[in-house]
Amino acid sequence: MEKLETTHDAKFSVETSLTGAAPGLKLEFKGNDAEKADLLFTYNHAAATVTGEFDISSLSSAKLSVLGGNGPVTAGASADVKISKSTVDSTTVNVGVGYTAPKQFFVGVRAEKNFANYSALASYNVNKDLTVVGKANYTGKDCGATFGAVYKCNPDTTIKTKVTTCGILSASLKQNFEKKFAVTASAELPSNLNSVKFGVNATLG
Fold first, then answer.
1. Is residue 148 a contact partner of residue 159, using CB atoms and an 8 Å limit?
2. Where residue 202 falls among pLDDT bands split at 50, 70, 90?
3. What angle is formed at CA 189 by the lines to CA 181 and CA 149, rounded to 5 degrees?
4. pLDDT at 33
5. Cβ–Cβ under 8 Å, residues 133 and 122
6. Of 42, 70, 139, 153, which is most buried, counting CB atoms within 10 Å of its CB?
7. What is the pLDDT of residues 82-96, one digit of tens each?
8. CB neighbours of 128 closer than 8 A, spacing ≥ 6?
């Protein structure tokens, strides 16, 4: 047992896991004494990783995903099943595939919501300091694209820029200091300049 909690109204929740039942298999349970009882599993194999989640309390949902690859190619798929009155109410399927050339480029495509939405992503390493990226989306009615670049001025300074087909330009500058202290300044400018945004964020640790 990894976790046992109780609330102010004396309700209990528990999380526990089991390994060793089969090579590469891990079972998990997350539930409480009220309405939640989820059984999860992860199966790791040299060729792929399979995960699943089942609602064993009300038998209302089940999720399954698989991710695998061979050399530079990776592929994955997921399914989300909703169950009502012992029958399948809906099933949502997502699939994707990608190709990676180490230290050079990456391209990938993804189909979501039962092949209703599509997206494509590409990145290219111009050199060790500059990377350019692009993403396109198609939702059946609308389509859009985003293009960006990441430039590492030095080991402690990084500049990021992004522009969308909606006419929004954004940029950020991150500066790392000693003792894990970092400051990021950002700006966003729409094409009509009617709502310019600026921001500064500081993190420690």
1. no
2. very high
3. 60
4. 76
5. yes
6. 42
7. 998 878 999 999 999
8. 152
